[in-house]
Each structure stands twice: as structure tokens, then as C-alpha cells.
Design goal:
Number of strands: 4
Strand content: 5-15%
Distance between the termini: 17 Å
Oligomer: single chain
Helix content: 40-55%
Strand order of the largest sheet: 1-2
Number of helices: 3
Order of helices and strands: HHHEEEE
Shape: globular
Length: 98
């Protein structure tokens, strides 16, 4: 609950489970963000041409399920290093590694 992205993830997970009766997975969140980013880039580019969409993505700042994306020509992931966390299984649950 203290994670800055908790609210978005929880809301997305609750909506996904209510609508499709499936639990949230990283793949669902990634796919949702990818499609929303693609749509935002198409709107910015005012085109569905691949190179124009790619150029538009590099200008986006986007708030998604997994966090706040900021793309550039050098950063196509958009989330930065803070979005990655190392976890370890302790035998009963995953524990965040500091």
C-alpha cells in the first residue's frame, strides 16, 4: 500500500477480476499500458504509420498502470530504474530485497 503505484495497480486488478474473472498478472498490466501508449502515440502522430507512431512515443509522458512513463530517443522503456524491484521467495511469500 505504500508503493506510489499501488492505487493504479489495485484499481486495474479489481476491474480486471470483476470484468473477466481473472487475477491481475504482470502481463495484463504490460499489455494494457502498451495498448494505451500506442493509442496515445497515434493521437499525437495523427497517423497510424509506424515511423510516425515511433517518433510520437519518444515525446510521451504517460501515466499507466505500472507507473509514470517518460520516453525519449534513448529510453524506450520509459519507466526508469525505480520501476524495477528485486524480490526473493522466502518459502511462503515474495520479500522485497533492499
Amino acid at each position: 500500500p505504500s508503493d506510489p503505484d499501488y492505487k493504479n495497480l489495485k484499481e486495474f486488478g479489481d476491474d480486471l477480476e470483476a470484468e473477466f474473472k481473472v487475477p491481475i498478472t504482470i502481463y495484463a498490466a504490460q499489455a494494457y499500458d502498451a495498448m494505451a501508449i500506442t493509442l496515445a502515440a497515434i493521437n499525437v502522430a495523427k497517423s497510424t504509420q509506424g515511423s510516425k507512431i515511433a517518433d510520437a512515443v519518444e515525446t510521451l509522458t504517460f501515466s499507466g498502470v505500472q507507473g509514470n512513463y517518460r520516453f525519449s530517443g534513448a529510453d524506450h522503456r520509459g519507466l526508469g530504474g525505480k520501476a524495477l524491484e528485486m524480490m526473493q521467495w522466502d518459502g511462503t511469500k515474495f520479500v522485497r530485497i533492499s
